[in-house]
Fold this sequence. Notes:
There is one protein chain. The chain is of the alpha+beta class. The protein has two domains: 92 residues, CATH 2.40.240.10; 88 residues, Beta Complex (RNA Polymerase Alpha Subunit, Chain A, domain 2). 15% of the residues lie in helices and 45% in strands. It is built from four helices and 13 strands. The strands form three sheets. A six-stranded mixed barrel has the order 1-3-2-6-5-4. Strands 10-7-9-12 form a four-stranded mixed β-sheet, with no helix packed on it. Strands 8-13-11 form a three-stranded antiparallel β-sheet, with no helix packed on it. The radius of gyration is 21 Å and the shape is elongated.
Amino acid sequence: MKSFDLTGTLRSEFGKKAAKNFRKQELVPCNLYGLGENITFTVTVADVRKLIYTPDTLVVNLTIGDVTKKAVVKEMQFHPITENILHIDFLEVNEEKPVVVAIPVQLTGLAEGVKSGGKLSLEMRKLKVKGIYTQIPERIVVDVTTLGLGKKIAVGDINIEGLTMMNVKDACVAQVKATRASAAAAKA
Length: 188
């Protein structure tokens, strides 16, 4: 996994009014949950922009005051209209306790069903996995070269050593759908 460095400032004010004042100052209220006590802090919007708007799952090196901890983003809250970031929850990680994170899926290869006139469809852009953060890859690469027309790859078909898939085993990750052209060619 890639890493991202982020510096935060401890906060002493809590509640809706304090959070509103932080947001007016272009600060984002954050929480760090995990192994020890929970830490509440703020970060600037400019500092977290590259963390938020990326498809990758990143390990964050959080520096809060004189303490540095490793964490992953657990949850982000956005304003429903302006889409400004309202709040971020981080989860502290270490090499002993597994964490659950969502990893992006990347398809590779040209499917047999596409050669027959079908259309490849990615049904799940991210998969939830559980494992030690050092064993979690940046992407889950799925080879679709043997995928025929009308066939699918389910979550249960994907195995990555050291990781447990948290999604439903029968859920469809990618499939080749039949098109009108492929159906007409099959009848002829």
